């Protein structure tokens, strides 16, 4: 059951840039449009750094960060699963695992450089004698890294006009990829980076606000989702990308969103579609299929929609077209970014303020 278009504040706004600018006062759209530039800039910036890490000693990697600053490590953990030779764990908390020590590389990520959980984890990593890399725009993290001669990528976010951490995904993902490449944990060529950039530019040209609604898949998807809970479904190398999409829907569109992974969801979630009986009105599934998946997962992406449809729940399916895993990651991220932005516009919501999060931080500081 699609939402009533007549109930929307301004259903024509997605084709009206001037009206969009009145709502998007911090230019989140500009950050979305600049994603390809962020990727290029991060790759170039990090390749000019000297990072003193003894890779031969590294037995495990721990990445610590919160919210948008933790998205990069999560993308890397999934997209480079077949290349990482040591385990990578993402920690969203104050404390590090007990095994962290001199043979651990701790990546400390905070866009502001002041996130309290991440600062605490950084000091613990220092006390444990771990090797440390820091990615931040400044703040306490950058100061600590400089004072202790830790490897530091201090982001110069030229292409993030909104200055929102969640919208600096090009910097955070490719900054960390480039750092790991620099120290020998990953291997990525300029040609592969250029392929990612080309993919983002192609999607941006297809999904940008200048492309009218009847030809724009992100605008169509925003209309399908409005008034319902989106549930994003993917597999394998796309799991981190779905986390990015969920995060941006939460913070930009102020919308509850979920992501689920095949094949795991096939073992339990499908039984949960029967109740409550309002699921058909409240849920909307978005599936991302890929020719790169394991052949049995490809089969699951044929059967799973039948189960969802059988529960009376609407869905939309996308077959990703790029031939490289990392390019497909950014297909999903780019579509998600434009869609959640258009959803915010349909709801007449400025995507930048995170009033509840700010309230929560203020209460904690008392």
Description of the molecule:
It is a single chain. This protein has 366 residues and is of the alpha/beta class. 45% of the residues lie in helices and 14% in strands. It contains 14 helices and 9 strands. It has helices spanning 17-23, 28-33, 35-47, 71-79, 116-127, 139-147, 169-183, 190-207, 217-225, 239-252, 279-282, 295-310, 325-346, 355-364, and strands at 60-64, 88-91, 104-109, 131-136, 151-154, 229-235, 258-262, 283-289, 314-319. The strands form 2 sheets. It has a 5-stranded parallel β-sheet with strand order 2-1-3-4-5, sandwiched between helices. A 4-stranded parallel β-sheet has the order 7-6-8-9, with helices on both faces. Strand 6, helix 10 and strand 7 (258-262) form a beta-alpha-beta unit. Helix 4 (71-79) packs antiparallel against helix 10 (239-252), helix 8 runs parallel beside helix 13 and helix 10 runs parallel beside helix 13 (325-346). The longest helix has 22 residues, at 325-346. The radius of gyration is 21 Å and the shape is globular. The mean pLDDT is 95.
Q: Detail the poorly predicted runs.
A: none
Helix content: 40-55%
The number of E-state strands comes to 9
Coarse structural class: alpha/beta
Mean pLDDT metric? 95
Strand adjacency order, main sheet: 2-1-3-4-5
Main sheet characteristics? 5 strands, parallel
What coarse outline follows from CA principal-axis ratios?
Answer: globular
Distance between the termini: 46 Å
- What share of the residues does DSSP label as strand, in percent? 5-15%
Kindly provide the radius of gyration, computed on alpha-carbon positions and rounded to a whole number of angstroms: 21 Å
What is the succession of H and E elements? Answer: HHHEHEEHEHEHHHEHEHEHEHH
Number of helices: 14
